[in-house]
Amino acid sequence: MPLISLDPLSGRYLSFAEREEIGLLRARAYGVREIARRLGRSPSTISRELRRNAATRGGRLDYRASVAQWHADRQARRPKPCKLASNDRLQQYVQDRLAGTVCAPDGSEIAGPKVRWVGRRHGRRQDRRWATAWSPEQIARRLPADFPGDETMRISHEAIYQALYIQGRGVLSRDLTACLRTGRALRVPRARTRGRGRKFVTKEVMISQRPCEADDRAVPGHWEGDLIIGLDSSAIGTLVERTSRFTVLLHLPPMEGHGGPRAKNGPPLAGHGAQAVRDAIAATIARLPGHLRRSLTWDQGAEMAQHAQLRIDTGLAVYFADPHSPWQRGTNENTNGLLRQYFPKGTDLSRHSRSELKAVATVLNNRPRKTLGWRTPDEVFNEHL
């Protein structure tokens, strides 16, 4: 990284001429916002400049352009020594909170399972290394509380991540990544996470655009949907009407060829691809009168990629909940929990026939609910019919 010179390469940094102007205006007792307005800069930029690069040798926070430029050049030098490399006490604190031994209440150490570090993320159903396992952010935020008067005991969580993942920083052993919550040995690039958004989800179909009548459950015909997943990518679709809690189960059998080699760019064969889910919902919803198929709220799963065609076929408006917000489909999530009594996790859901799914739905729909005044969903739904 080049040093800040008198002729800056980018307008991102303050130039020496701007620092001279700041010094003159400051000497004339102008405020931070007035200086920022005259230079065309953000007030926070001027405030940080006056605070960080002031001349402090005389015991006062006087601002001089030459001293400020010297401070800026010194801070821009690269590479900088890592804090953990130059502070053994801080390094030991971070390492103890990240990879410390698990202890029982009586103080005895518990080793936990022995796991060999293989340089990749361990599977969810495999043993993980037992450790204190504070997150880097927890460590960074706890330091001011444990060392309130020691400014040398400060580090950002990003610096800890870099010490783990960038071996050029060379402080923390790389196998300590197994103590992180994710257990990743490689860091996921931000560009990759930004590209994970569902392209078929636009702001026009987000839950914020759903009619307000769906929120208070006063008007029937607003549904919530989801998939419950089982062994070998088997799935069952669930639809729940918000007002009556009436439940419909969608039969999604695996397609021919599932389990064998998959054709390149071929359709998903597990039975819950976009087209299979669209056809199953259309076949079910189309049998209902118009006032009972007003909207459908789903999560942002890829199985709803053909929601536009579903709306054309059935007239059902489809909306999507925000990412990682299951409470926005609370009725459906609660129903899925009830269904797990019949379809436990880790079981093959494809073995259940269409008639068996209807039987389970009938059981739920004839179970009295407290929220309905101890009436059954079937009774309330029939009233709307």
Automatic annotation (TrEMBL):
Q: Which Pfam families match?
A: HTH_38 (PF13936)
Keywords attached to this entry: DNA recombination, DNA-binding, Transposition
In alphabetical order, the GO MF annotations are: DNA binding; transposase activity
Q: Does the keyword Oxidoreductase apply?
A: no
InterPro entries reported in the protein's UniProt record = Integrase_cat-core, IS30-like_HTH, RNaseH-like_sf, RNaseH_sf, Transposase-Integrase, Transposase_IS30-like, Transposase_IS30_CS
Q: Which GO terms describe its biological process?
A: DNA integration; DNA transposition
Q: Name one GO cellular component term.
A: cytosol
Transmembrane portions of the chain: none
- SUPFAM superfamilies found in the cross-reference section: Ribonuclease H-like
What the record says about family reads: Belongs to the transposase IS30 family.
Q: Which NCBIfam families does the annotation name? A: transpos_IS30 (NF033563)
Record function comment: Required for the transposition of the insertion element.
What is the protein name given in its UniProt record?
IS30 family transposase
Q: Species name for this entry?
A: Actinacidiphila oryziradicis
